[in-house]
Amino acid sequence: MNKKLMTMLVACALSVSALSTTAVFAEDAVVTGDTPSVTETTTTPAPAPAAYEPEITLLTPKWTGDSDIGFEVDAKGGAVYPQEMFVYETDEAEPIISVPSKVEVNEQGKGKITFTNNALKNAKTWDDKGENQISLDWTKYSKIEFDFAFELDGQDIYKFMYVESSVKAPEVTVTPTTPAKPSTPAKPAENKGTTTTTTAKKEAPKTGDTMNVALYASLLLVSALAAVVLTTKKRMAE
Fold first, then answer.
1. Contact of 136 with 120, CB cutoff 8 Å
2. DSSP of 13-50
3. Between the ranges 77-81, 96-100, 212-216, where is the mean pLDDT highest?
4. Strands 155-165 and 62-63
5. Is 214 in a helix, a strand, or coil?
6. How far apart, in whole angstroms, are the C-alpha atoms of residue 232 and residue 227?
7. Do residues 69 and 113 lie in contact, with contact meaning Cβ atoms separated by under 8 Å?
8. Closest by alpha carbon to 67, among 120, 122, 12?
9. Domain map of the chain by residue range?
10. pLDDT, tens digit, for every residue of 89-122?
11. Helix, strand, coil in percent for the chain, rounding step 5
């Protein structure tokens, strides 16, 4: 292939490339001029409400049956309500029936909740059949569960607190009795020489009557015999 032909081909290629570039720029100019610019608007989503996180702190980690059980609460402007209570002997929970509490919380939801020692000792549960209320034997249980409900703007939060329980059975006081000491017999007086034993005879008590009873008894007997003899003769005579 000669140089003249090569030069013509290169020139044609350059011409085609220039025409293509001009057409593209012209198209861009037309589109840009005819289509109005569009501004995109980004919508920012509203922030999600913060999670309600009230606080509660146990003030009595262990109950031995001789003190109150207290909790310090911060309801963060909401309300707090003591709920159910349970006791644990092993892993199985038994319900406690209506133990009253003292709620001392201000308008900001800060304060203290107290379960008095007397109210806890008088707490009751259900019997094995779930029919009758019986007193709790606190010596059987090792843990108490307290449930609390917090509420703010429709958000309800429940928190559970556990208190170790260690109540001992009351000791039975036995008063020892001191046995009476045996009496020591008196030692007889030591008599030197001959010992004389005198036996005193008891005399009949004196009444002051000196009448001869034997005489009157004899007369009474004679009278009785005479009456018998007379009665017998009378009957024989008839």
1. no
2. HHHHHHHHHHHHHHHHHHHHHHSPP----PPPPPPPPP
3. 77-81
4. parallel
5. helix
6. 9
7. no
8. 120
9. 55-165
10. 988 899 999 899 999 999 999 999 999 999 999 9
11. 25, 25, 45
Q: Is the CB of residue 113 less than 8 Å from the CB of residue 101?
A: yes
Q: What is the pLDDT of residue 84?
A: 94
| Residue with tokens 């429940």, as numbered in its chain | 158
Whether 69 and 162 have beta carbons less than 8 Å apart is answered as: no
> What class is the 55-165 domain?
mainly beta
How long a stretch of residues is the chain?
238
Indicate the helix (H) or strand (E) that contains 164.
Answer: strand 155-165
The Cα–Cα gap between 104 and 110 comes to 8
For residue 31 the two structure tokens come to 């589109």
Q: Over the stretch 170-184, which tens digit does the pLDDT of each residue have?
A: 877 777 777 667 666
Partners of residue 104 on adjacent β-strands: 112
Q: Is the per-residue pLDDT at 34 higher than 90? A: no
**Token pair for 56:** 């509660």
Single pTM value for the model: 0.54
- Alpha helix ranges (H) inside 3-143: 3-34, 117-121
Residue with tokens 């010992």: 195
Structure-block tokens of residue 216: 């009157």
Q: What is the pLDDT of residues 116-155, one digit of tens each?
A: 999 999 999 999 888 899 999 999 999 999 999 999 999 9
- Cα–Cα distance measured from residue 105 to residue 76, given in angstroms and rounded to the nearest whole number: 11
| Model pLDDT, residue 188 | 60
